[in-house]
Design goal:
This protein is α/β, with parallel strands linked by helices and 304 residues long. It is 40% helix and 16% strand.
């Protein structure tokens, strides 16, 4: 694989390998293939097999390159990782998720993910279904405000929604920069601070792609396919995602039960996971080299 093609730098790659512990002859799933960083690392680490999933049709060319290089040890299956249990019918030894939008999608202006690049409002990872344009131009003011607050954690969601509705009375909001300029009338940009459009764009992207619902379904699907001692590793980038992962692992992670007040605590025998990690964050060196890693959090769990 040519280094020049590695536009997307996989976050916490060494930690993913450390906690996945790949072994020759075993099968792993890269649930968010993207540019293939995790898949490549697993395949190069040992003579294992990797099944990669992705809903983005633009990754097929990259997946074909992997097939040509790794042959039968690599397989690509198109689809959302929320459909994990349907896409993966076989039992597996591990699965890794890298949640959220990839730098390749952000860098492709035509996809409409970034407020920094002029493009039609879109944000659909699969290229199908409801787009950001549809939401911005058809949702009621209340529904827009609720969406921006819930998924973007934006405290000025009501003012932003009101400005959007007022603007679209004159014309459709068609481009990323057009929407960003509307947001800037509510929250002014300041040097050195996060761009005021960030939270609203995040909220729209999450809603368009049902990212939180996909994550919940994907975790459950992956856990259902893990063999005994199989490992589930998740890297996420904001609090909404991390809350889902943390709570899922906690709720299924070997709660303690006591038969009587005189007996010692015992782990629940029917819990999904025998071991659940605390949150793991990237090193200072990685954050300095790859700014995308700064907000990353890794959690892993081991199947009972």
């Amino acid at each position: 694989m040519a280094a020049a093609k590695q536009r997307h730098i996989p976050v916490m790659l060494q930690e993913v390998l450390q906690y996945m512990r790949p072994q020759a002859g075993e099968t792993y799933v890269d649930a968010t293939f993207g540019n293939g960083g995790y898949s490549q690392a697993l395949l190069e680490n040992c003579a294992c097999k990797v099944i990669a999933l992705d809903r983005d049709p633009n990754v097929v060319i990259r997946a074909n390159e992997f097939k040509n290089t790794y042959g039968s040890r690599f397989e690509f299956r198109a689809g959302c990782f929320g459909d994990f249990a349907d896409l993966i019918r076989e039992n597996i030894h591990g699965a890794v998720f890298d949640i959220g939008v990839s730098s390749m999608q952000l860098d492709d202006a035509e996809r409409g993910f970034s407020f920094a690049k002029e493009a039609k409002l879109d944000m659909r990872m699969s290229g199908e279904g409801l787009s950001a344009f549809d939401i911005v131009n058809t949702y009621t003011e209340k529904n827009l405000a609720d969406l921006i607050y819930q998924y973007g954690e934006e405290h000025k969601s009501r003012q932003i929604a009101a400005k959007i509705v007022d603007y679209r009375r004159k014309k459709y909001i068609e481009t990323t920069t057009e929407l960003a300029q509307i947001i800037y009338t509510v929250i002014h940009r300041k040097a050195g601070e996060i761009d005021p459009a960030t939270r609203t764009f995040q909220a729209l992207r999450i809603a368009v792609n049902d990212e939180l619902g996909e994550l919940q379904r994907g975790l459950a699907g992956a856990a259902a396919r893990l063999m005994s001692n199989g490992r589930l590793v998740v890297v996420d980038f904001h609090s909404l995602e991390d809350r889902i992962v943390k709570n899922y692992f906690k709720d299924n992670g070997g709660k303690k039960v006591r038969i009587s007040k005189y007996a010692p605590e015992l782990a629940e025998s029917d819990s999904l996971f025998k071991e659940v990690s605390k949150v793991i964050t990237p090193s200072a060196q990685e954050c300095a080299a790859n700014p995308r890693a700064r907000s990353a959090k890794l959690r892993y769990a081991i199947r009972r």
